[in-house]
Amino acid sequence: MTALEVLLFSLFNGILYGLLLFMLSSGLTLIFSMMGILNFAHASFFMLGAYFAYQISKYVGFWPALIFAPLIVGVVGALIERYGLRPVHKFGHVAELLLTFGLAFVIEEVVQMIWGKAPVPYEIPQSLKFPAFNWLGLDYSAYRVFMVLISVAIFVGLYAFIKRTRVGLIIQAALSHPGIVGTLGHNVPRIFMLVFGFGSGLAGIAGVLGGNALGTEPAMAIQLGTIVFVVIVVGGLGSLGGALIASIFIGILTNIAVSYDISFRGFFMALGVSKDAVGVGSDLVNMTSAGISPILPYLLLVLMLIVRPRGLFGKRDV
Length: 318
Hints:
The protein is mainly α. It has 14 helices and 2 strands, in the order ααααββαααααααααα.
């Protein structure tokens, strides 16, 4: 495979992974931009979507699960907002953060109690288990193409809903001027409950589509939960377009690091670290880009907080 083919391969796979991250982060971005709540349990709704889809698909198949699992997650999210977040809202954002932080552990324990600690056999549906096309000698499944289409549809639909519809404008106004919106006859608490439920449902969709591709297990929320916050901080808190660009950039960055697997031996030897070093020195000399690919998003986060704390397209600092 030539260098150009490796680059194209990395770009394509990075975009696929980035769009999955966007599906997961879009709901959190919506909740924060509309309500100002940074939900630490958002990745747990992603996990619930995968487990609910697994359970439903066992009896009625994948396609009904794609519809009903996000709806169930959305209802769970709405109930959490109504009976959990709303009572503590008067105590400020710290209380909300602590509530969602604890909720993430509660959901993980409940999942382990019901489905166990081992991964469950949630598989890609047979109707989409075929190669959509062949590129660079590799087959790309129809399921991956389906995930891309759903991600693009979510972005277009959310953007049009928030920016172009009357309901979207009312929701935006409810955050900045809740009193005025209330005097116009709108039920602001109900609006917040529905927005939180809808954002949770978006995480549920990502769980339905990503659970069978990445594996459905109790640790999946922790594995993707932190990188979701990297996405929304880098993209800009509350910016849907920023979340999309940050997701794709992070996906491409990590895939290129793995594909090229660049060695840092020459760099560290130039700094005086001997190639015969042992211990920490040996680890440094043998370091490659593939080895540090998992921490690249977090290095990007640190750089963004130093250079531009509000992110790429955010309107407020972190």
